[in-house]
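Lab notebook: predicted structure, single chain.

Context: the supervisor wants predicted structures on file for every construct in the current expression panel, including those that have not yet been purified. This is the next one on the list. No modifications to the sequence; it matches the entry in the shared construct table.
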Amino acid sequence: MRAFREAVEAGDMDAVEALLAEDVVFTSPVVFKPYPGKAITAAILRAVSQVFQDFRYVREIGDPAGSDHGLVFTARVGDRELTGCDFLHVNEEGLIDDFMVMVRPLSGAHALAEAMGARFDQIAKEAEARSA
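Prediction complete. Output recorded below exactly as produced.
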């Protein structure tokens, strides 16, 4: 998923959004219920790009020509270091239709949950505006 990685690393969130399928499902590392849809997924990813500091991908897992990919990353949220992985599945059109994130350690997940929770009203408003 080279295009996705390059868009994230460039901070080009419009390009990231363009790689999402309309029916993408985003599974958060800190919320039980998945978020279905391109608008909410794009809004969440935009917020995460502001929350994460010193974000960088450190490894790719999977066959570049396959439909399943893992992108291992490191980042900081406040004073908490974390490691995580974006697990991506692409559909026949090459768009991401399943996006699951996992992070560790627990203290990093808590910091992420707190930072994203503080932004969730804005995330919901952005998603609503994008889907209208």
